[in-house]
Each structure stands twice: as structure tokens, then as C-alpha cells.
Design brief:
Layout lengths: L3 E3 L6 E3 L27 H26 L7 H10 L9
Antiparallel strand pairs: 1-2
The structure holds zinc ion.
Zinc ion binds next to loops.
Length: 94
């Protein structure tokens, strides 16, 4: 499961997977816009950590859900809110 994103310059959609190669410089594959100019060498690793941990969280939640079913209900907002809170809100389509 990848994570779609939008370039802040050309607005085209890309996938976080497309930014994992440090040699690519963490740039927009379409217009070349540098997403993290001062951190181009470390940002791809951070992106990889996001993809790995996101997948691991979704997998673990699914596993627990299948084990416990309705007998245990995690507080949905407590799971989702800390993630939502660190993301800027998506710009509305013009
Ligand atoms: Zn772009």
C-alpha cells in the first residue's frame, strides 16, 4: 500500500514510493521541485520509515481486529488523530 502525495509546485500526483532513491534527490519526478532541499540525503529514509510503519500499523490493527472482533474496540480517534494532527489539511481542489 503506497501513499499518494501531491507536488507543492506542479500539483501532480505522485507516490511516496517514487521518492525512496537517495540518488534521485527527493525531487518531484515531473517538475524536479526539491521537496526537502536541506535534507535530500536523509528524507528518502524517512519516507521509507513512513511507508513501513504505516503498513505495519495497518497490518497489526487488522490482526488484532481479527483476533478480538467486537470484544475489543480501540478508540478510533486515538488511533487516527495523532497521525492526522501532524499532516497539514489537504488543499481543496480549485
Ligand atoms: Zn512537481
Amino acid at each position: 500500500m503506497s501513499i499518494p502525495a501531491h507536488c507543492g509546485s506542479c500539483r501532480r500526483e505522485l507516490l511516496l514510493d517514487q521518492l525512496l532513491q537517495p540518488s534521485d534527490g527527493f525531487r518531484c519526478p515531473f517538475c524536479g521541485f526539491a521537496f526537502a532541499p536541506s535534507y535530500a540525503t536523509v528524507a528518502p529514509g524517512v519516507a521509507a520509515r513512513i511507508l513501513d510503519s504505516h503498513a505495519a500499523l495497518v497490518r497489526a490493527l487488522g490482526e488484532l481486529q481479527s483476533m478480538a472482533g467486537g470484544r475489543l474496540q480501540l478508540d478510533r480517534s486515538a488511533v487516527v488523530a495523532p497521525v492526522a494532527d501532524v499532516l497539514p489539511t489537504e488543499p481543496q481542489p480549485a
